[in-house]
Design goal:
Layout (H helix, E strand, L loop, with lengths): L3 H19 L6 E5 L5 H10 L3 E4 L2 H7 L7 E4 L8 H7 L2 E5 L2 H13 L4 E7 L12 H12 L4 E8 L11 H16 L7 E4 L5 H6 L4 E4 L1 H4 L8
Helix pairs in contact: 6-7
The protein binds pyridoxal-5'-phosphate.
Length: about 230
């Protein structure tokens, strides 16, 4: 495998170009989406300069994390309430809160563990059926409730745009989420500073539209082994 160093350098250059086009200042954090990647592959990414990783599946994280050096870890998949307790022992932040039920469960377990957990709300900006995330029109109402939970710190929003051949198609969806993020930042009690948008295919559009965290798998590690998503 080609080491991730030169890939990371190229990604950073593309992020800088996207920032320049949009007239925004950075920084933009890069999260390495590590699903399906071995601890050795992840360690190589950390050595190349990655300081934030994201996993989608609690069991996969539990199996791999002990072999990794300390690094910030975010949960980015769909979290079932029966996995919350375990997730809290593995992750620094849950980016994918998409229901009051899940928020309450996280609140209870964080309270028991004596911590205050950073969370993002996941939005489903295109209203895609069969995808997780909150309808845009319900997001701020849930945000208001979550800011009242003592052991959760609401730090922003996360979203995936529908896959389309042309990454430009993601732009209106990212814009929807950025507008919600701006409203969220004005809510009393919200500590919103993270806008997690964009994957390998569409991260430049996401950065142009205001993302300050992009989640990259294939752009960083190369194509995923077949049979994984
Ligand atoms: C896999 C995944 C990514 C990264 O996907 P790539 O297309 O490989 O960059 C980003 N976000 C989430 C939620 C993912 O599951």
């Amino acid at each position: 495998m080609k080491p991730p160093d030169d890939r990371l350098e190229a990604i950073r250059a593309r992020i800088q170009q996207a920032l320049k086009r949009s007239g925004r200042a950075g920084p933009v954090r890069i999260l390495a989406a590590t699903k399906g990647r071995s601890p050795a592959e992840i360690r190589a990414a950390l050595e190349a300069g990655i300081d934030l990783i994201g996993e989608n599946i609690v069991q996969e994280a539990a199996a791999k994390f002990p072999a990794l050096p300390p690094v910030e870890r975010h949960f980015i998949g769909h979290l079932q309430t029966n996995k919350v307790k375990k997730a809290l022992t593995l992750f620094d932040c849950v980016q994918s809160v998409d229901s009051w039920r899940l928020a309450l469960k996280l609140e209870r377990e964080a309270a028991k563990a004596g911590r205050r957990l950073p969370v993002l709300l996941e939005v489903n900006p295109a209203g895609e059926a069969g995808k997780f995330g909150l309808p845009p029109e319900e997001t701020l109402a849930l945000a208001r409730e979550v800011t009242r939970l003592e052991h959760l710190s609401l730090q922003g929003l996360m979203a995936l745009a529908p896959y389309a051949e042309d990454p430009e198609a993601a732009r209106p969806h990212f814009r929807t989420v950025r507008r919600l993020f701006e409203e969220l930042a004005r809510l009393p009690g919200a500590e919103a500073h993270l806008l997690s948008l964009g994957m390998s295919h569409d991260f430049e559009i996401a950065v142009e539209e205001g993302a300050n965290l992009v989640r990259l798998g294939t752009a960083l590690f190369g194509p995923r082994p077949s049979g994984t998503r």
